[in-house]
Design goal:
There is one protein chain. Helix 1 links the parallel strand 1 and strand 2. The longest helix has 16 residues. The protein has a 6-stranded parallel sheet with strand order 2-1-3-4-5-11, with helices on both faces. Strands 7-8-6-9-10 form a 5-stranded mixed sheet, with helices on one face. Helix 1 packs across helix 7 and helix 3 packs parallel to helix 4. With 242 residues, it is an alpha/beta fold. It is elongated, with a radius of gyration of 18 Å. The protein is built from 8 helices and 11 strands. It has 2 domains: 124 residues, Rossmann fold (3-Layer(aba) Sandwich), CATH 3.40.50; 107 residues, 2-Layer Sandwich (Dihydrodipicolinate Reductase, domain 2), CATH 3.30.360. It binds NADPH dihydro-nicotinamide-adenine-dinucleotide phosphate (NDP) and the ligand O=C(O)C1=N[C@H](C(=O)O)C[C@H](O)C1. The ligand O=C(O)C1=N[C@H](C(=O)O)C[C@H](O)C1 binds next to helix 6.
Length: 242
């Protein structure tokens, strides 16, 4: 049995992960929130699970590296520099960062990549996500993950081909771009639809999360899988064998 530490332990996901750990028969080594001692938590743990804030990421990665333990990063709202930090930490320990730990979204990303690869850029791609009113980042990490999957299928760079935050006189849609739209309200755990829109026909690929259990179970599974892995950056498809 592994000792698993949670960063963001009192949050919505932190509590769901603690419940999933208990169900899986794993040991919770401890949990911290803002102002907590992540180095001490890392010393008491065999693996860390971080669902907190991008502001905490650097210290969390440093603590995992210093303690020589792997870390699962589920926090979203990450910018390019946060991905560089994950890459740097992965030179010294095992790091798995993902915008969504669920089996369903992991499979959806695979399907989106396949569809984008097969459909030409006369098929416009638009990603729509809906989340609860408490969510602080947009587009969601999952929407960006799905956008990356579509961009990979199209063999283009998402950063150079995104349309985000349309407002006012936007001009026509750019051919080959990937659009993002975010809805916020109520208690929605997380809905994502990738629309492929062509002349006279459309395809919509969706994942609807009914509660946070799916994310929590996936995070625990990722932590279990990371134990004993050599340094490097890992992905959810590897964890789930997809
Ligand atoms: N990858 C995935 O599958 C999923 C990812 N997420 C992501 O996980 C993150 C957390 O979501 P959620 O639980 O809903 O958010 P919450 O706001 O409910 O919880 C966040 C927790 O992190 C803590 N926290 C904030 N800053 C720090 C810090 N510097 N160091 C340590 N802890 C800190 C907060 O503590 P305090 O209250 O003291 O500030 C709080 O307890 C979000 O980025 C969300 O998008 C969510 C679901 C699934
Ligand atoms: O903040 C959330 O709640 C969620 N965040 C993740 C994201 O940004 O994609 C995953 C899930 O959709 C729930």
């Amino acid at each position: 049995m592994a000792r698993i530490g949670i960063i963001g332990s009192e949050g919505r996901m932190g509590q769901a992960i603690a419940a999933a750990l208990a169900t899986a028969g794993e040991t919770l080594s401890g949990g911290i929130d803002k102002g907590g001692d992540v180095e001490a938590l890392a010393k008491d743990s065999d693996v860390l699970i971080d669902f907190s804030s991008p502001h905490a990421l650097e210290a969390n990665l440093d603590a995992a590296v210093a303690a020589g333990i792997p870390i699962v990063v589920g926090t979203t709202g990450l910018e390019e520099r946060h991905h560089w930090l994950c890459d740097a930490a992965a030179e010294n320990t095992a790091v798995l960062q993902t915008g969504n730990t669920s089996l369903g979204v992991t499979l959806l990303a695979h399907l989106v990549r396949e569809a984008a690869q097969r459909l030409g850029d006369d098929w416009d791609i638009e990603i729509v996500e809906t989340h609860h009113r408490m969510k602080v980042d947009a587009p969601s990490g999952t929407a960006l993950l799905l956008g990356e999957a579509a961009a990979t299928g199209r063999n283009i760079a998402l950063a150079d081909n995104s349309e985000r935050g349309r407002d006012g006189i936007t001009g026509k849609r750019g051919t080959g771009t990937i659009g993002f739209a975010s809805l916020r309200g109520g208690t929605v755990a997380g809905d994502h639809t990738v629309h492929f829109l062509a002349d006279n026909e459309r395809i919509a690929l969706s994942h609807l999360a009914e509660n946070r259990t799916i994310f929590a179970k996936g995070a625990v599974r990722a932590a279990q899988w990371l134990l004993g892995k050599p340094k490097g950056r890992y992905t959810m498809p590897e964890v789930l064998g997809l």
